[in-house]
């Protein structure tokens, strides 16, 4: 079974690499945002630049998770190659596991341009252990977005999945305090911020980046979103299986 | 002979639509069976039941002694993807490797590609292949795992004559080596060229299950229609249908039938002779058979 997961992952990674625009899309935006909004203002402050770098790495990972997964899952369902895969001697698991592994790899890749910008133009802390902790936090904080992406991909056609995931993404990034730090956000945004999953993710990457104690409420809310999104994705998966393969 | 796949009274509904209606078919080892019928007849649904993509609403489907929904059972079969759905950015060799990795004893990339005249395209991206090359690759993938039983859905639709010959040769070679094949087509010509046995489906039912020669005779039939009352015994009539005062007779020799009709002195009017469609011919015969049994 693991060799089949590997085969499916390899096939999906090749598909992604040969059309690199998908790879770049999630990583470039946060790197440019870092360059335009963080470098000029906090570039020489090590703590503030590390916080900004963490936020932008999370934005990259979230974007790859939400948009990448929703679009690829929705497109999978539309490709006639997908039912063919189901006639091969493998259950649905290897393809699904490959999709998750490929998306995780893309999420990691999406954090790299931000690290590059931070390393070149800021005083951010780039110790390998620190970076590994931030990447880990960004992946963990993106989990509900992977599940939401999965849900959207399973219930929407690909064109709608692209639009809906983009519409959802920016409000989440802004309300989570990732584009503007919570300290300078308007009061009404700060009031709702702890209740969006991106804020919990932000708390995780800031914790990993500077050791600042995370807000407990935001973390509990993050866990809650993960459970709810997981249930929604599981429901959508069973519904899709029932429609197409029974 | 060993039965490799069978349906027993398999019915499949999609909502209110009955796609297959109590179909019982057996595919035996070493056979090359053609599944013939117009679009919407139930060919694809029957294929989907055999390869495990769909489950019957009632009845049973058996594949290689097990259930088609068991991945281990599917190691013994090969299926063609639709050529329009092949992953465009993958290279020919990569997609063969990917599919082969699912099987315990794959044929091997070079041998498989050579068999279908694709040997020189190993490194080409699928998106850059011609329609005919994609079709050949799609069919080749069905043979990648060295299967015992292969399902080919419309293998040569849209191909030119030469590409069709290459594909037919590949399919024949597999069959001569002892392989079993179920192939669908809506061309009688393709079935004639390849198959020994033909299963004709229409309206979700098996209309005929016979040798190619027997089916060809029926397809060559004409429909002779006229208005008449009581009919005498007429020669060469394969089926009779009545609609009010109108009589429809299916026959392979309409000239002789009309001569005999005139000779018998039976009054008739509105004589009309036209070729039957495959489906029409079988429906008439089926109706006649059911009438005889009743």
Automatic annotation (TrEMBL), chain A:
Statement: the UniProt record of this protein carries the keyword Cell membrane: no
Organism: Nonomuraea harbinensis
Keywords carried by this UniProt record: Membrane, Transmembrane, Transmembrane helix
Topology in the lipid bilayer: Multi-pass membrane protein
Domain of life: Bacteria
Pfam families for the chain: ABC2_membrane
Principal location: membrane
Protein name stated in the entry: ABC transporter permease
Intracellular or extracellular location(s): Membrane
Membrane spanning stretches: 21-43, 55-75, 96-121, 133-156, 168-196, 216-237
InterPro entries in alphabetical order: ABC2_TM, Nod_factor_ABC_transporter
Domain ABC-2 type transporter transmembrane: 6-196
Automatic annotation (TrEMBL), chain B:
Signal peptide: none
Localization (cell): Cell membrane
Domain ABC transporter intervals: 5-228
Keyword Transport applies: yes
Biological classification of the source: Bacteria, Bacillati, Actinomycetota, Actinomycetes, Streptosporangiales
Keyword ATP-binding attributed: yes
Record keywords: Antibiotic resistance, ATP-binding, Nucleotide-binding, Transport
GO molecular function: ATP binding
Mode of membrane association: Peripheral membrane protein
Main subcellular location: membrane
Pfam families according to UniProt: ABC_tran
Entry protein name: ABC transporter ATP-binding protein
Domain of life: Bacteria
């Amino acid at each position: 079974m693991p060799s089949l997961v590997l085969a499916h992952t390899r096939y999906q990674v090749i598909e992604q690499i040969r059309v690199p625009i998908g790879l770049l899309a999630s990583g470039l935006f946060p790197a440019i945002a870092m360059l335009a909004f963080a470098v000029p203002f906090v570039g020489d402050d090590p703590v503030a630049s590390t916080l900004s770098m963490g936020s932008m790495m999370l934005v990259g990972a979230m974007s790859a998770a939400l948009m990448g997964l929703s679009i690829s899952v929705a497109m999978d369902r539309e490709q006639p190659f997908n039912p063919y895969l189901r006639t091969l001697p493998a259950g649905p698991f290897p393809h699904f596991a490959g999709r998750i592994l490929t998306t995780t790899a893309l999420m990691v890749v999406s954090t790299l341009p931000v690290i590059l910008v931070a390393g070149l133009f800021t005083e951010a802390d780039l110790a390998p252990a620190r970076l590994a902790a931030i990447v880990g936090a960004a992946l963990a904080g993106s989990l509900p977005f992977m599940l939401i992406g999965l849900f959207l991909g399973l219930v929407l056609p690909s064109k709608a999945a692209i639009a809906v995931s983009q519409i959802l993404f920016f409000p989440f990034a802004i309300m989570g305090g990732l584009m503007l730090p919570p300290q300078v956000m308007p009061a009404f945004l700060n009031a709702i911020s702890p209740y969006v999953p991106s804020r919990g993710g932000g708390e995780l990457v800031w914790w990993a980046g500077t050791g600042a104690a995370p807000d407990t409420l935001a973390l509990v809310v993050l866990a809650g979103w993960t459970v709810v999104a997981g249930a929604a994705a599981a429901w959508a998966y069973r519904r899709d299986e029932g429609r197409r393969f029974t | 002979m060993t039965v490799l796949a069978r349906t027993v009274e398999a019915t499949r509904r999609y909502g209110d639509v009955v796609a297959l209606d109590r179909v019982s078919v057996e595919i035996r080892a070493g056979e090359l069976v053609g599944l013939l019928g117009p679009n919407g007849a139930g060919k694809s649904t029957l294929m989907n039941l055999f390869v495990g993509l769909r489950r019957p609403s009632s009845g049973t489907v058996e594949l290689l002694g097990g259930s088609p929904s068991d991945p281990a059972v599917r190691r013994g079969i090969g299926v063609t993807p639709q050529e329009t759905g092949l992953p465009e950015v993958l290279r020919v060799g990569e997609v063969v490797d990917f599919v082969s990795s699912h099987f315990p004893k794959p044929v091997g990339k070079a041998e498989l590609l050579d068999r279908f005249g694709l040997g020189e395209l190993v490194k080409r991206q699928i998106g850059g292949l011609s329609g005919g090359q994609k079709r050949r690759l799609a069919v080749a993938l069905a043979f990648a795992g060295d299967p015992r039983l292969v399902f080919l859905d419309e293998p040569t639709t849209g191909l030119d004559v030469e590409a069709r010959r290459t594909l037919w040769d590949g399919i024949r070679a597999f069959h001569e080596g002892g392989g079993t094949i179920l192939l669908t087509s809506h061309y009688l010509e393709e079935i004639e060229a390849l198959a020994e046995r033909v299963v004709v489906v229409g309206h979700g039912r098996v209309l005929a299950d016979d040798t190619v020669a027997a089916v060809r005779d029926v397809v060559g039939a004409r429909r002779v229609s006229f208005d008449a009352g009581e009919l005498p015994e007429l020669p060469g009539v394969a089926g009779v249908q009545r609609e009010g005062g109108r009589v429809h007779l299916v026959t392979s020799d309409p000239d002789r039938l009309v001569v005999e009709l005139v000779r018998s002195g039976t009054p008739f009017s509105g004589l009309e002779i036209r070729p039957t469609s495959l489906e029409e011919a079988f429906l008439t015969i089926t109706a006649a058979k059911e009438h005889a049994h009743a």
